[in-house]
Amino acid sequence: MNIREFAEHTGLTAHTLRYYERVGLMGDVGRDENGHRIYGPQDSQWVNFLHHLRETGMSIREMQRYCTLRAQGDATVAGRLALLQRHTEQLARHLREQHDHLARLRETMAAYQTRLRANPGVARREGEFAKKERGFDTSA
């Protein structure tokens, strides 16, 4: 696959793919006789893994560390595992914090819903206010 096809296949942009190559995350990408990048199935699996690392918040620097270890072969399996374990712990902590924030928002929303049910007049006035805020004319 050329870079356009590979970008469509992976869901990443051609710019991101070139960036990943430039910062050492892609290793040596194959080239055709005209010097255009050629990607294969192994590249697809690797980019998918890189995408998961980024989506879980791993920094490019940590991804580079992982790639450096990976390039050194089986002697670094323990180091790669340790790096992924640290990242997983950080991600789990972040998810717990986000879950707590979500719970607080839901508690606040529930309190507002209780107040609105207790006083329907407030609900009507609040509804009119919200319409005005969104640009709807309620005077007609």
Can you offer a commentary on this structure?
This protein is an all-alpha fold and 140 residues long. Helix content is 71%, strand content 3%. It has helices at 3-10, 14-22, 41-55, 60-71, 77-118, 120-133, and strands at 30-31, 37-38. The chain has a two-stranded antiparallel sheet with strand order 1-2. β1 (30-31) and β2 (37-38) form a beta hairpin. It is elongated. The model has no long low-confidence stretch (mean pLDDT 91).
Which key features would you list for this structure?
71% helix, elongated, single chain, two-stranded antiparallel sheet, 140 residues, mainly alpha
Strand order of the largest sheet: 1-2
Structural class: mainly alpha
Helix content: over 70%
Q: Can you tell me the residue ranges where pLDDT is under 50 for at least 5 consecutive residues?
A: none
Order of helices and strands: HHEEHHHH
Separate helix tally: 6
Largest sheet: 2 strands, antiparallel
Mean pLDDT: 91
Q: What proportion strand?
A: under 5%
End-to-end C-alpha gap: 59 Å
> What's the count of strands?
2
Q: Quick one: overall form? A: elongated
What Rg do the Cα atoms give? 25 Å
